[in-house]
Amino acid sequence: MSAPLSFRLDDQINEALEAYVTKKGISKAEFIRSAIMEKLEDDYDIMMADRNFELWEQDAKKVKTLEEMLKLYG
Question: Which range marks the domain in which residue 19 is found?
């Protein structure tokens, strides 16, 4: 399922977008979908890194040796 989305771009951004998608041979919609997914993935990665850092701090900043990691994860 897809949902329509509508927004306005100022002339400068629209011209830059037009030039980019024309050069790349993609549609504006394709570029915007890709940019949104990239942003969501980046933010998710940051959230997970922050969460894991907090857990590491709560665990008294314990670290594992390479040998321990290989035993755990192969």
Answer: 11-73
**Strand ranges (E), the chain:** none
What is the pLDDT, as a whole number, of residue 27?
97
Domain for residue 6, yes or no? Answer: no
The predicted structure's pLDDT at residue 1: 84
* Residues in Cβ contact with 21 at an 8 Å cutoff, skipping those fewer than 6 apart: 27, 28, 30, 31
Residue 62 lies in a domain: yes
Interval 39-55: pLDDT, tens: 999 999 999 999 999 99
Q: Is residue 53 part of a domain?
A: yes
- The closest of 30, 8, 10 to 20, measured between CA atoms, is 30
Rounded-to-integer distance, Cα 17 and Cα 9, Å: 10
The answer to whether position 5 is within a domain reads no
